[in-house]
Design goal:
10 helices, single chain, five-stranded mixed beta sheet, Nucleotidyltransferase, domain 5, elongated
Length: 307
């Protein structure tokens, strides 16, 4: 009863102040109600502080929503929390998770990945130079490549990617309507041109026919080929993981009409999000591009100190 009277008095007092009218004689009203001024002031402090807290909560929820949308609805609570901390906002991951549940938000993770390619049985001379060492100390030391199937309304398309294991950046990719080796060859040539590399490096792949043919070996030139053992996809885990990622985070959310539609979606994910924006735990929650830029900035400083 008293709380209701307190609230009505406080609302009336605020309304009169906003409208610039004569101030309410609060003391007189409180005398009539038979309650103390100190009790009323304590009530106002509690209630209006609560309103301020609710307002701040709504602001935080809006920020969580904006980051979720900015990430193409891919980020969950851990990565949204990190993005908020980058903006100087201290908040617990559990709180972000609670806000996401209140707003009905969740990270997109739609289907488990099932590998559909079958590694053929090739000669034992194909060596595994990588040996599951997935963390080189510099860019352009080890690349890896694989082909994955993309289902469209008009049949399959085939995505070939080359990843730099240092940063997990996709440095070249091709979408094709066939499994001809020429698409892999084009991807290799593009990667070499874009990275302008002359140093010896390793390019790891499975034992698919596209990766053992003469045209591929010729395109490698000074690059050393490395191959996973038969039926051992974990030996090329990073590129396998990326192909699973692009499907479950992005492609499985769409009914892909045809080749052109698939191309647009893949371009958007790789070129405008994954390489440049999406934070990666391997890269200390920088994007692959940011991680490489950080490496070269550190290298430049080290060289300047020794000069």
């Amino acid at each position: 009863m008293t709380k209701g009277l307190f609230l009505q008095t406080a609302i009336l007092e605020q309304k009169l102040k906003r409208e610039g009218l004569r101030r309410l004689n609060v003391s007189g009203v409180l005398r009539i109600l038979g309650v103390s001024r100190s009790g009323y002031n304590s009530f106002k402090e509690r209630e209006f502080n609560m309103s301020a807290k609710l307002s701040y909560k709504e602001e935080l929820k809006n920020l969580v929503l904006n980051i979720h949308l900015w990430s193409k609805q891919i980020y969950g609570a851990p990565k949204i929390t990190r993005e908020l901390k980058k903006q100087g906002i201290r908040i617990a991951e559990k709180t972000v998770g609670n806000y996401m549940r209140e707003m009905g938000l969740k990270a997109h993770y739609i289907k488990p990945y099932i590998k559909t390619t079958i590694d053929p049985d090739f000669d034992n001379r194909l060596k595994n130079l990588l040996n599951e060492q997935f963390n080189p100390e510099k860019p352009n030391a080890i690349w890896c490549s694989d082909i994955t199937y993309i289902h469209t309304g008009k049949g399959f398309a085939y995505l070939t990617c080359i990843m730099d294991l240092f940063s997990r950046k996709i440095i070249a990719w091709r979408l094709s309507e066939s499994l001809e080796a020429k698409w892999v060859v084009e991807c290799v040539l593009e990667a070499k041109e874009l990275r302008r590399t002359t140093q010896p490096l390793v390019l790891h792949s499975d034992r698919g026919s596209q990766y053992v043919c003469g045209a591929y070996i010729k395109a490698l030139n000074n690059i050393m080929p490395s191959y996973s053992q038969k039926a051992s996809p974990w030996q090329n885990a990073c590129i396998e993981s990326f192909h699973a990622l692009i499907k479950r985070e992005w492609l499985y959310r769409f009914k892909i009409k045809d080749f052109d539609h698939a191309y647009r979606l893949i371009f958007e994910y790789i070129e405008t999000f994954y390489n440049t924006v999406r934070s990666h735990s391997h890269c200390g929650y920088l994007s692959p591009q940011e991680y490489e830029e950080y490496y070269y900035a550190q290298l430049k400083r080290a060289l300047e100190k020794t000069a």
